[in-house]
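Lecture notes, unit on protein representations.

Consider one protein chain, 338 amino acids long.
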Amino acid sequence: KLVGCLANEDVDIIVHALEILDDTLLKVQKNVILFLQCQGVQAANSLSVYPEEHVALLAIRCLIHVAAVNTGCTRMLETKTVSNLTQILSSEDVSAGVKLAAYALLHRLSSRVACIKRLLKEDLLDFLLHQVEAEEDPQLKSAAMDVIANCGNLPASPRDPHKLVRGGGVAAVLGAGGGGSVPICVELLNHADDRVVASTARILQVCSLTEEGRDVVVEAGAVKVLVNLVLAKSPGVRRAVTAALLSLTISETGKKQFHRLQGCAALINRMKRDPSPNVQQNVIKIVSAMCCLPAARQELRDDGAAELLQGLAEYHKSTNAETHALAELAMKNVLWEP
């Protein structure tokens, strides 16, 4: 009956039905299944592009609930959901609130491997990269970038007939915008908004999961900017940046550039004073990675890294077993002699 109400000519009835679905019913999986059986996705799709903002927003929020179920995602990919979302995001007449909801739905869809394959086949990455460049609202820019980062998590599928899916998510992100995605991201690392910077670093971290990607990111000059951002005020930025550097310092080229750009000094700074557990763990892991480079290992030793790591290991002995173990290993690596 509620799905039937979504086709009513009275806007108030439509809104009331959507509110009931969004607030209570679609939060229960068995109700989502019933919603699918009643052609609810098709009805919500139609309302997602409704001229009245409140109706469109509620319709998209209902679809977000549906995306929590595998069959719901499949149904959306079979219908007009993605094309409607791109229509919403490219329109100048749609409010930021509705666009954020549209990005939230794409983010939910792009968290599933099967959905990423379909999104790549519909050239979503090129569309999103264009939105990143064109969008002035930092929150919307960041939301678009988070979907791109999600798409980068698709494993390579050598037997898939579609080129983008066959090469995997990292290759697809690297090739987006005619290969311009990494240079665009490196430039956005200097953005004034912390959300944009953190989202940019997440994309670069995903791009650095492969050897090819690491080479592209290093050659684009990302390491220099990322090293400076290790000292950023925002914990979210520091976490994303150190995660990206952790991937980049896997390669010898990345290690050498990180060392040349005073990255070890930044690590010492963070070990002394960073309150974020996630940042601490990333920094400790980078210290271990950098110890493979003799010059960096010597610098870390001379600057007191072993003592700092010992202090972190003792501090976390009874509070965080993982950080304790990482700090002890990194200390041994710093003190290692060939």
